[in-house]
Prior knowledge:
- This is DNA-binding response regulator.
- It comes from Actinopolyspora mortivallis.
- Keywords: DNA-binding, Phosphoprotein.
- One of its GO terms (biological process) is phosphorelay signal transduction system.
- Residues 148-213 form the HTH luxR-type domain.
- The N and C termini lie far apart (42 Å).
- By secondary structure, this protein is of the alpha/beta class.
- Strands 2-1-3-4-5 form a 5-stranded parallel sheet, sandwiched between helices.
- It has 11 helices and 5 strands.
- Helix 8 (172-179) crosses helix 9 (183-197).
- The chain has 2 domains: 2-128, Rossmann fold (3-Layer(aba) Sandwich), CATH 3.40.50.2300; 145-218, Arc Repressor Mutant, subunit A (Orthogonal Bundle).
- Mean pLDDT is 82; it is low at 213-219.
Amino acid sequence: xxRLLLVDEQRMFVEAxxxxxxxxxxxxxAGSADPFEQELADKIAAARPDVVTVDLVSCGTEASEVxxxxxxxxxxxxxxxxxxxxxxxxxxxxxRAGALAWVxxxxxxxxxxxxxxxxxxxxxxxxxxxxxxxxxxxxRQDTGSGGRSGPLESLSSRERDVLAGMVEGKRSRQIxxxxxVSVQTVRTHTRSILDKLDVHSQIEAVMLVRxxxxxxxxx
Length: 219
């Protein structure tokens, strides 16, 4: 059962969303919180969420601070941003802060449930119309900071196989089937890949490879 924490200052929206998500048999809304309340950290600790949803658009100029507080309070939880507008700059900011997914509210509950399940497995999802912007921005950030030295050198051969599948846009189950391993094994390799590459999400790992730093090591 996946434990969810809903973070949004719009109380009516939170209640409606919670009711909808509760219809999924494998999801449990363990709590909700206002992003600006002083007890946010305490509520997170009580909920022990696997996934946190948050509406950053409503946070305005405090979006970065809200993300920082969420990451500090629940570093193991995947963060899903619920967006009420395109917000390209905010999407980039969210990705830099480690948010694994960006879901426009108009996509509906069924799509959100699918993304939440994926995020709980360490997968990432950003809309195609935003993904290019996010990847280019992260690439510029990495280049500006001097990049990494041989980022793929620390990966095992099997971890490279899993990473190659991620670059091709394959889901964990498909990678597992092609490598003749379990989905849980792929998830374990994925967590190890993120740790070794010092990135927060699969999106950043894929960006690192596509930037050309990693592919040179494999040739």
